[in-house]
Amino acid sequence: MIETIVTRPIDGQKPGTSGLRKKTRVFQEPGYLENFVQSIWNGIGGVQGKLLVLGGDGRFFNDQAVQIILRMAAASGAARVIVGQNGLLSTPAASHLIRARGADGGVILSASHNPGGPEGDFGVKFNTANGGPAPERVTEAIFRATTELEEYRILRAPDLDLGELGIHRLHETEVEIVDPVADYAALMERLFDFDAIRALFASGFRMRFDAMHAITGPYARAILETRLGAPAGSVINATPLPDFGGGHPDPNPVWAHELMALMTGPEAPDFGAASDGDGDRNMIVGRGQYVTPSDSLAVIAANAHLVPGYAGGLKGVARSMPSSAALDRVAEALGIACYATPTGWKFFGNLLDAGRATLCGEESAGTGSDHIREKDGLWAVLMWLNILAAREQSVAEVMADHWARFRRNYYSRHDYEEVDSGAATTLVEELRAGLDRLAGARLGVLRVRTAEDFSYSDPVDGSVTTKQGIQIHFVEDARLVLRLSGTGTAGATLRVYLERVVAGPEGLAEDPQAALAEVIAAAEELCMFKTRFGRAAPDVVT
Ligand code: VG1
Ligand code: CO
Q: Which atom of ligand 1 is nearest to the CA of 91?
């Protein structure tokens, strides 16, 4: 029986950088999830007769949310919903399924790198028919729908058994439960030289992949251990847990500290990697050699021709504006275009769809290509394995060669987390208001060349997105970017991005924080974080 429930708009259901993220407890409030899901349906013109994909990263409340969304899809007449077994799908696997099955869109349940559990975060993302995150015009339509909502429709029915593969029926909607790994693993096999990677492992190459108790465990086991022959135990923390084992499923040196300790210790294997809650981020680390995501993207671009799926060359590349410009010099050398977009994967979709870019990446550990329309953690790991196998070099050797050829961009991000929202907004507004006076000014020993509030005009559809971060270029080949996070669920998080290019061949092996000291000092002089936020130092330095 279909029920129509009278409701009223709930404040603040505004999708951010990547979907709607709130405290799990907020999502569990009566009607909260239902209101948002009905608003997605309303915002995209209904789901009557449509084919949808549904799955999540397995965090606490994933199982219940999947049942609610299935009943709401059925109540609104969806023709079929393809669901990952037990309600699980990594974000890249969901993107692939949407494309491979010609779906009209998909709902992904995840708050990505944010911690999960009853006291953690939950999230809902909507992806469109190209497999990518909904572009801004769609998220705006969904948000508008949340402000006008009067009722939602839901089927009254018992829970489906999501463990059983095959086609089930919910009212008039078919629910197809699929193996979450199979199609994705087959796609990876088509892109990479699995024989070469298998031979690498057979020769004694050792790796450690930390799934951080999140969604990539089953994918990494199936691909790295079963298909590529990495020794059993190469994948650790491989069972997805509803609270990610109490950890912070964000693959960076701070949150993946166990892996970092291993990789810098005496027993270090040749290669280390990690992924995040929903499987779209990656961390790459060699023995004693951490690779920043911006450098990783540049290395992948410079070596993509060694990988079968990209042997034909790259059409172009793209990076988020705050990501380092290491990629730009590779693009220049290859003679291809390099685009700088606002933060968030949704801005890459048009470039990928239009064939203007083949590879994309963000400094926040997201890397991907036109094989799907999301960033893809395991894909990046396989890229590196394929490149290491083809070049017969260690990670440290690959990096040394890369910097010698392209120069090195020292790069770091300092996050001030959960600071007072008012103080953070005031800082950004004051910076904006003072931009004109900055050009030519001195900040510490650095001289400002240009200062702007980044705005992006999409070369494909002409849409313009403003206020995407304060960007300051210094005469001394350095850069400072500041923006507020759009994925947090408490207070405000200020991200400070710091970059300096060294010409080499000297000075290629400095400690990044030391190499960036002058840019860090310039940021403090400009923003006075200590006075404004009462914080002696950033909360997270990556
Ligand atoms: C952060 C990152 C951004 C990334 C986004 C979603 O956004 O900076 O690069 O696209 O998270 O990643 P923000 O607005 O907090 O800076 V994921 O893997 O959390 O979906
Ligand atoms: Co993620």
A: 20
State how far the alpha carbon of 123 is from the alpha carbons of 107, 114, 349, 367, in Å.
Answer: 10, 9, 21, 21
Distance 22 CA to ligand 2 centre (A): 15
What pTM value is reported for the model?
0.95
Q: How far is the CA of 474 from the centre of ligand 2 (A)?
A: 32
pLDDT at 127: 98
For residue 235, how many C-alpha atoms fall within 13 Å in the half-sphere facing its CB?
Answer: 24
Pocket test for ligand 1, best of 320, 362, 364 (most atoms within 8 A of CB): 364
Ligand 1, atom 1, lies closest to the CA of 487
Residues 467 and 399 in one domain: no
Q: Which domain holds residue 198?
A: 184-406
- Mean pLDDT taken over the chain: 96
Nearest CA owner, ligand 1 atom 6 = 18
Are 225 and 326 in a shared domain? yes
pLDDT tens readout for residues 81-101? 999 999 999 999 999 999 999
Ligand nearest to the CA of 319: 1
pLDDT of residue 514: 95
Q: Which amino acid is at 445?
A: V
Mean pLDDT of 46-59: 98
What ligand 1 atom has the least distance to the C-alpha of 487?
A: 15
Look up residue 370 and give its two tokens: 């036109």
Task: Calculate how far, in angstroms, residue 394's C-alpha sits from the geometric centre of ligand 1.
Answer: 30
Q: Do 240 and 351 share a domain, yes or no?
A: yes
In the numeric block, the tokens 């799908």 are attached to 89
Estimate to the nearest angstrom the gap between the alpha carbon of 123 and the chain centroid. 14
Which protein residue's CA is at the shortest distance from atom 11 of ligand 1? 487
pLDDT greater than 90 at residue 241: yes
For ligand 2, a single-atom ion, the residues with CB < 5 A are 112, 276, 278, 280-281
**One domain, residues 396 and 477:** no
Q: Give 401-449 pLDDT, tens digit per residue.
A: 999 999 999 999 999 999 999 999 999 999 999 999 999 999 999 999 9
Whole-number pLDDT of residue 489: 84
User: How far is Cα 112 from Cα 250, in angstroms, rounded to an integer?
Assistant: 8
Ramachandran angles phi, psi of 379, nearest 5°: -55, -45
Beta strands in 454-515 (DSSP E): 456-457, 464-465, 470-474, 478-484, 492-502
Q: Do residues 355 and 222 both lie within one domain? A: yes
| Helix boundaries (H) for 462-516 | 512-515
Ligand 1 pocket: which of 487, 493, 497 to mutate (most atoms within 8 A of CB): 487
- Residue in 17, 57, 323, 428 to alter for ligand 1 test, most ligand atoms within 8 A of Cβ: 17
Instruction: Mark which of 381, 406, 431 sits at the end of a domain.
Output: 406
Residues forming the active site:
112
Q: What is the pLDDT of residue 168?
A: 97
- CATH number of the CATH domain containing 212: 3.40.120.10
- Within this chain, do residues 395 and 447 fall inside the same structural domain, yes or no? no
Mean pLDDT score, 380-391: 98
